[in-house]
Amino acid sequence: MENSGPSLDLYGMLEVTSFSKTCYIGREKVVQEALPFLQSFLEEYGISCTLNMAERSMTLSTTRRTKDPDVMDKAVILVELLARTSIPACKAIEILHGRLQHEVIKTEFQEGGLCSKYGIKKERFVKNKDRFKCYLQTLARLSKCEIYINESSVVAVGTSGAGLRRFRSIVECCFIKDEDPATIVRRLKLNGETYRLMKKLEALCL
Which contiguous run of DSSP H or E holds residue 101? Predict the structure, then answer.
């Protein structure tokens, strides 16, 4: 089921809705470890959370105690991040609270993935992914984001919308334009030095 955003019934009560998401292989154990903390957190908002290990699926359900109709949409994002990316549970909850922003880019051959969208061959994707991973820490620092990468997506988490836009630009240059991350790093550092120099000149002119 893919329904979210509970609505009001004829009596002015929130209708119970649910949302299920299948975990990627390997993520179910991580989710299982975080489940007690996650359940306790979501219970405060009147949302139940269950994990079916046999089917590797997480299910969210609103209850009669759900007060905020919008919280289900936020909880759905949280579950999708936990089930499909390598983001830690604590970071996903910070996103739900609105303290952090995030950007998810599908990179492989799934619907909406960069490989599917731009016809990128498997060999080229693997090469670009390996190069990207070698510069992960440097690219994270330059984009001022935390970057998490798994088999089929790359995710950035940060407080700056500008940083997340820079992150998306970096990923697109690497995977779509086939640009070496080393070149991207040099360009970003050069742009940063030029920006600092301009600020110094502006200060001297005041």
Answer: strand 101-106
CB neighbours of residue 57 within 10 Å: 17
Q: What is the pLDDT of residue 3?
A: 42
Q: What is the pLDDT of residues 175-191, one digit of tens each?
A: 999 999 999 888 888 87
Residue 53, C-beta contacts closer than 8 angstroms, at least 6 positions apart: 28, 32
Residues pairing with 2 in the sheet? 19
pTM, rounded to two decimals: 0.77
For 67-90, what is each residue's pLDDT tens digit? 777 888 888 888 889 888 989 888
What's the one-letter identity of residue 18? S
The pair of three-digit structure tokens given for residue 84, joined into one six-digit string: 């499909």
Using left for φ > 0, alpha for ψ between -120 and 50, and beta otherwise, residue 118 falls in: alpha
H-run or E-run covering 128: helix 122-134
Query: Which one, of 107, 113, 118, lies nearest residue 150 by Cα?
Result: 107
The phi and psi torsions of 198 (rounded to 5 degrees) equal -60, -40
Planar angle of CA 122, 180, 139, nearest 5 degrees = 105
- First CA to last CA across the chain, in angstroms? 61
* Residue 19 zone, left/alpha/beta (φ > 0; ψ -120 to 50; rest): beta
- Mean pLDDT over the full length of the chain: 84
